[in-house]
Design a protein that fits this description.
Blueprint (H helix, E strand, L loop, with lengths): L5 H4 L1 H20 L7 H19 L4 H14 L5 H4 L6 H19 L1 H13 L3 H15 L6 H19 L12 H18 L7 H12 L5 H27 L7 H14 L4 H18 L1 H4 L3 H14 L5 H6 L1 H22 L2 H10 L7 H14 L7 H18 L4 H14 L10 H6 L6 H29 L4
Length: 476
């Protein structure tokens, strides 16, 4: 069977994408923004073109990043050693290790087992069935740093199996229960991405931005301390809200429990690899939580866990080499961090932030926080990646909040959590969104309507309830 390259099949579309990427970058390269030096202008131009390429994707992300690295060196915008310095960043290797953990959960079947155990135990009606999906997502989130991997490889297959068990297929039968389950699976995925430092690829990067710009150390425990109450409120309220919005026809969820029992029987007792993986992940979790006490960086706690998995042959070296997503992230994420560091170190972020948000100067800091955090969230309509969004905008928005007098910890946390919550508004806002939207249980209009309603609820919980909780525990 012949495989057709989409780019070759539609060269005009590819040309338009490349033009979208290159034209703004070329313009800024030769005509820098006011207040920037020539080298700062060149860096901004290449960085902007890179971010646009991650959104419109005229080529795989790795290709765009390699091109950007080469341009930075050839144009002498940055020294060659600086261009490659991102690969020495510990955050990059934490994300790499966490993606390998995600592979282990999928390959051993432990992720699916956890999901079906939740359903067998708690699925007594449609709402508790939804909570079972959310609970499985919550338990897996600390160890699977990609909502695409967690949602697409674990939660979505379980959700589709449940839909099939009820005879709920896209079309007239979607409202038997399928629409409800698809929405719960999706909305619980990106919410749990915001709950833990290690549950979304860009979260450690965000923590690094916060440390360098605001001198705020978002440790694994501090991140969770801030997210635990608003996060659990969201996971309690949103499935109930989705139940009211979709009104599934099914009331008896016995078929879900029967499916879970059948799947668990097929899996059999816990395999050796699952036991090792569970024990190692518990150890890694303890290491992350207690990192302020023992002083070992989170990255090397994760690499220690990965080493045990390799030595115990839960995962082989060949499997590690074959895990394309981990290597892909390593290749394109490191240069992104390097460029962000270079923009921050040279003062470029402060200059751009002052010019973009200067009109808001003088507002009370609480008003500034509300305006900029809402802008930051809803501007995600223009992004197809949480990582691209956070990389491009988090430093500038954080600089503006700090300049406006917002407490550093508060500014860092709100933008960090909203970097995950923004993914729910569209069917393309994160990698898991097209996976859940693709089968066709909802139209695009329905998806966007529900997404906006849920976003309003999320904003209320995290801004109002979150502010109160963070004040109570002394984070601001």
């Amino acid at each position: 069977m012949q495989v057709i390259n989409p780019a070759a099949a539609n060269p005009n579309a590819t040309f338009v994408k490349w033009a979208t990427v290159l034209l703004p970058g070329i313009a800024l390269f030769f005509f820098p923004l006011p207040g920037l030096t020539a080298l700062q202008g060149q860096l901004v131009a290449i960085f902007l073109a890179t971010i646009i390429s991650l959104v419109v994707q005229p080529a795989p992300m790795g290709v765009s990043i390699v091109v950007a690295m080469t341009l930075l060196a050839l144009t002498r915008t940055l020294p060659a050693a600086k261009v490659l310095s991102g690969f020495a960043n510990v955050t990059v290797w934490l994300i790499f290790a966490a993606f390998l953990f995600a592979h282990a959960f999928t390959a051993t079947g432990l992720g699916l087992r956890i999901g079906y155990l939740f359903i067998r135990q708690f699925a007594r009606n449609p709402l508790t069935l939804g909570y079972s999906l959310a609970g499985a997502n919550l338990l897996l989130a600390p160890f699977i740093p990609s909502d695409t991997a967690r949602g697409g490889s674990v939660i979505f297959p379980i959700t589709r199996s449940l839909c099939a068990a009820f005879g709920s297929s896209p079309g007239p039968a979607a409202n038997i229960i399928g629409r409800f389950l698809i929405l719960v699976g999706f909305h619980s995925t990106y919410v749990t991405s915001g709950l833990f430092l290690t549950s979304m690829a860009a979260n450690p990067l965000i923590a690094e931005f916060a440390l360098k710009q605001a001198h705020v150390d978002l440790t694994w425990g501090r991140w969770l301390a801030g997210s635990i109450v608003p996060g659990l409120l969201t996971l309690s309220i949103v499935p109930w809200l989705l139940l009211k919005l979709t009104k599934p026809e099914i009331r008896d969820t016995a078929p879900a429990r029967e499916l879970a029992n059948k799947q668990l029987e097929t899996m059999g007792p816990l395999k050796r690899s699952e036991k090792w993986l569970g024990a190692v992940m518990l150890g890694v979790m303890v290491g992350w939580v207690t990192s302020p006490l023992h002083g070992i960086p989170n990255t090397f706690v994760a690499l220690a866990g990965l080493s045990v998995l390799l030595l115990a042959q839960v995962m082989t070296w060949d499997e590690l080499l074959a895990e394309k997503r981990a290597w892909d992230v390593l290749i394109w994420f490191a240069p992104l961090i390097m460029m962000s560091d270079a923009l921050n170190e040279g003062g470029t972020i402060k200059i751009l932030s002052a010019s973009l948000f200067g009109t808001l100067h003088g507002l009370p800091w609480l008003a500034l926080l509300v305006i900029l955090s809402l802008t930051y969230l809803y501007i995600h309509y223009a992004f197809a990646s949480m990582t691209a969004h956070a990389t491009a905008l988090y430093p500038g928005f954080l600089a503006a909040l700090l300049a406006g007098g917002v407490p550093p910890m508060l500014a860092s946390l709100v933008l960090a959590y909203f970097s995950n919550l923004d993914a729910g508004i569209t069917h393309y806002g994160t990698g898991s969104a097209p996976v859940f939207f693709g089968p066709g249980y909802l139209t695009q209009r329905e998806w966007w309507r529900v997404g906006f309603i849920v976003s309003v609820v999320n904003v209320t919980i995290w801004l109002v309830g979150g502010l109160a909780w963070w004040k109570l525990i002394g984070l601001w």
